[in-house]
Structures are given as structure tokens and as C-alpha cells.
């Protein structure tokens, strides 16, 4: 079974999430308890009905058995002296009464009738108007058979109702055990499902807190530099502008960094805007070629071998602006992080109805443990930190790919080399294509 790594937020969010989990567990337990109790009650009533009917049927059989071997010469009470096996699951006390002769005979005594008045029991059974039932006052069950042409031979079988209730008690105890077991199972699974239900909330909250912390950190650095520059300018107010140009240019550079950061943050929220700018018949082949040509000079300056192979006329539905941004981010990162005299390759091909764009570094390497977090906002490897940037390029690229119903994956060699592979749905659009 896959191990669940629990996320443990702190402070107010933790209390809120605990409250949500608690409500989920309580709700699940309450619903399960009500359902199980209703089922248990139904089963109990059904079992009581079945067992009661079975008991009366058994008593009826035992009464009828006395007459199976009767002969025409037998008198009413003589036939009851036959040696008949009355063995049964329910111990019975059988009485035969002949109204003609007024004689009464006990045929079977399989349970102790002490403390009970047989006369009152027979009177209660006969006066009930029913062939079977329960005599509550004496805690007895009874069943009546009437024989003879004149209906003058009455056989009554009595059984101890306590014996029947003992069987019912065992059924109720088994039901209770099953209900308790199921309630424990519900508790266990509701706790797990409760965690699964709030896990996305916890992850979102955690990412939000991390995002705020990272954004604050990225904003603090340029603001600190700008504040320091302004302090220096204020302390040297009598100096000429030309002599202070170093601090002014530093402030301008940090202002540009702030503007770039804000622009990147805005891009991360533009998913709806991307969808609104979608067009059919976008020539992705030309877009990739144009972006690669723009970076050819930069690669040459870094002495990086830059090759791009693009299949012609691969068309997709998308936004020209955002697809250009996606390709630019990937190619820019590839060249930026490839060491001098390294190699970068860009390939675009159509495969199984998908436009597959691969941007690969031949010598730059991404450690395997870093790959799952590459698309997290503000996440940067140590190498990336030394190369500038805010760590928002790949999250923006992922956002663009998702908006185009595509996928992105990262492939990295054990020692060197890595590749970003983008797959976008290809459009079979005839020849009425948008010109780029």
C-alpha cells in the first residue's frame, strides 16, 4: 500500500483543517451508525420472525408426529403411547386432551415446567383464539392441533420462550459485534478519506504560504537596494548627478527587476486570458523557427552549438503570443544554463496526433530530486540561483502548456544532459491557415 506522507500546516490553517477533518469523520460516523442501526434493526426483526415461525413449525411437526403411526384400533390417548422420536432443536412440553372422556395426558416433557400452571397455560392457549402464540404471563410459546371428527382431541405443544429469546440474544450480540467492527472500519476509512479530502486544501494552503514567503523575499531584495541607493544619494545631496550616476543606475536596474517580477506574477494568473486569445490554425513550425533564429546570436556569443530541426506545417489551436512566450522560456533557459562550448538542440515533430517540441541541453544536468519541483513558483536549483531570474519562467511555461491542453515532462541523464518535452494537440485544419 502506498504510504501517505501527511502534510502538517501550522497555526490557524492547521486548526481549520483539523476542524474540517473532524466534521468529515463525525459526519461519516453518524451516517454509518444510522444506516448500520437501521440495517441491524431490520435484520433483527426479520430473524425474530423467521426463528419464531421456525419454532412454531417445529412444534407443529412434533405434534403431528404422534399421529403418523396411529391405527384404526387406537383410541385417542392410546395412540399417543407410541414410541416416537420427538428429538428437536426446541425442547417441548406436549399435552393431549380428550374432551369426550375428559382425560389429559402429558406426552413429552423435554423442559422443566416447574413453577408454571399447566391448567392455566392450556386455558390461556385455548382462549386466545389462535393456533400458535406466546403466553407472556408464563413465558411460554404454544402451538395447537385439533383432531378427530368431532374436533374433540386437542394437542398442545408448549416451549420455553426464554430458550427462544436466548437464541435471539445470541443473534443480537453477533449483530452488535458486526456493527462495532463496521463502525471501527468506518472510523478508520473516514479518517483516511477525511485526510484525502482535505489534502488538496492543505497543499494549496501550503503552496500559498510558500508563494507569499518567496514573493516577499524576491521583492525585499530590490527594495533594500533601492532604499540603500536613496540613502546614499540623500547623504550626498551636494554632489553632482554625474557623480551619483552609479547609484541612480543601480536603482533603475532594480526598478526594472521589480517590474519584471510583477509582470511574471501577472503572467501566472493569465490562464483565462490565454484561453480567450486562442485561435485555430496556428503554424507552430514557424513560431519555433522564429524564436530559434532570435536566439542564434546569443548562442554564438556563448560559444554554444545551437541546432534546431523543425518539421514544416505543424498546426495547433492556440495563442500566438503565449506560444511564443513558451518557446522563448524553454530556449532561453537551455542556452542560459548550458556551459560554454556546450550544445543545445531544439526539435519539433508530429507524432501520433501530437506536436512534440523537445528542447535539450547536452551538458547541463538537473538532479533527479529537483525535477518534481521545477515547475513550482520561485523554485530554483543552486545553478539557477547563480544565473539570475526569479524562478517563475518554468511555472509560466507550465501554465501556458496546461492552457493549451498539452503536457510537459522533463528527461534528465544520470550524469549530464536534460530535455524538456512539450506535447500539444495537432490540428487537422486543411489549408486555410493563419499566416504568421
Looking at this protein, list some descriptive labels:
single chain, 436 residues, alpha+beta, five-stranded antiparallel β-sheet, five-stranded mixed β-sheet, 50% helix, disordered C terminus
List strands and helices in order, with pairings.
Elements: H1 12-65, E1 92-98, E2 103-109, H2 118-127, E3 132-135, E4 140-147, E5 153-160, H3 161-235, H4 245-267, H5 271-276, E6 279-283, H6 284-301, E7 305-310, E8 315-318, H7 320-337, E9 343-351, E10 354-361, H8 382-385, H9 393-403, E11 407-412, E12 418-425
Parallel strand pairs: 7-9
Antiparallel strand pairs: 1-2, 1-5, 3-4, 4-5, 6-8, 9-10, 10-12, 11-12
Tell me what the structure shows.
Helix content is 50%, strand content 18%. Strand 11 (407-412) and strand 12 (418-425) form a beta hairpin. The model is unreliable at 1-9, 69-88, 383-387 and 429-436 (pLDDT under 50). The strands form 3 sheets. Strands 2-1-5-4-3 form a 5-stranded antiparallel sheet. A 5-stranded mixed sheet has the order 7-9-10-12-11, covered by helices on one side. The protein has helices at 12-65, 118-127, 161-235, 245-267, 271-276, 284-301, 320-337, 382-385, 393-403; strands at 92-98, 103-109, 132-135, 140-147, 153-160, 279-283, 305-310, 315-318, 343-351, 354-361, 407-412, 418-425. It is built from 9 helices and 12 strands. The chain is an alpha+beta fold.
